[in-house]
């Protein structure tokens, strides 16, 4: 039996190893950020080698048998300090990371990294040439590899559940199916009433109320300045972070005091640029709000991707599309884009940013249809992982799913099953975290409103600090001390449930 002193010593050594792991993996994050922003195109090959080398080193360190022995020795310390203690949380996370790494042969990790790098190139080419056949053999290989990964990590689990658990610990495909069955009918009712074919459509006809307001000329250099000012007003600390133009909108947390956001702007698509950055600002506020004392330990992270996503969706939609938010920001926006908006009424602008319209594109979907896009991806990827859907049959299954759920069909696969890069990167089981993010966000926002009163009035005054302060204390500072379900229960008193999300949508789209 290890003594208490042995446990303390083992725990200290584990924390030192965890700090080293965190430093090395943040080097990979910085390389990733550079790849998104300033790296010349010619650097792609060398960058892939750098990232693969780091991934190999990290895997080697995480799977080392010594780590397993140290966790065993230190375990009684976590038990002694109690399930809510930092020691217990750190040991739980380290054990999870070690066991997963130890079950995965390095050969599989390297093969996956190599195939994903080439598959992503094939996917980009297929999308450009609008030709699924270019990507198909790589998708087949990727599915084979993630199935092997699932079997190695958790041979007793349904393979899809094993993958989902990587991103949302403890979540199952059955639970996601149940959520989707619950939200599908009310979302379709909202879409029927408020979409372009609905009774409540605006004067501008098929494109819905306010169409066109957001597609005027919004010079991108001014969009950049405006977004930066909004990010700062919401509480994103630009002394502890940056906002740059990148290939994709992203938030990459490098380490304490260094949270990097990337954005992409298009002159005639104000909304897609603006709300994508707001989304990343939400991720950034979460990362900046964690307890600096936890930095370098496993606790210094969100408990799940769904929980991290909840904060991006909360700031993007529940705050960023609210009446109070635009009461404060619309006059400022009109000053910056005077030519585009001089004659636009605030009400028309608010209607435009809340327009409901079935589209083929998930990333640009409104709040009502967004989860329907995710549900389609969940069904298809689960079928592929379970072997019920061959990669070759994906385009046809995609078209059928869009026709059934949204009443529209892509004219080619670039608009269809080639639009997202997740599968090319080997991310199967990731999409449901978007749905969970929406569900958690609404539950957390409703709890904030119960505690703080209607946040809208504060937003109208330009005050976002009360909400941010509440979120920091309740959600951001605890980091990964609790599981996502436990954190949600502590913050809202509830288990994950879609009622708050549906109520928020029904309130926003109620007949006036
Ligand atoms: Zn996100």
Description:
By secondary structure, the protein is mainly α. It folds into 2 domains: 153 residues, no CATH class; 337 residues, Orthogonal Bundle (Neurolysin, domain 3), CATH 1.10.1370.30. The chain has a 3-stranded mixed β-sheet. A hairpin with a 2-residue loop joins strand 2 and strand 3. Helix 2 packs across helix 4 and helix 11 packs across helix 17. It is globular and about 75 Å long. The protein starts with a helix and ends with a helix. About 2% of the residues have low confidence. Bound molecules: zinc ion.
Which helices and strands occur, and which strands form pairs?
Elements: H1 4-37, H2 44-63, H3 65-81, H4 86-103, H5 106-129, H6 132-153, H7 159-167, H8 173-194, H9 220-234, E1 241-245, E2 250-255, E3 258-263, H10 270-288, H11 305-319, H12 323-336, H13 338-341, H14 346-353, H15 367-386, H16 394-406, H17 432-452, H18 455-460, H19 465-476, H20 484-492, H21 499-508
Parallel strand pairs: 1-3
Antiparallel strand pairs: 2-3
Helix pairs in contact: 1-2, 1-3, 1-4, 2-4, 2-5, 3-4, 5-6, 6-7, 8-15, 9-10, 10-11, 10-19, 11-17, 15-16, 15-17, 17-21
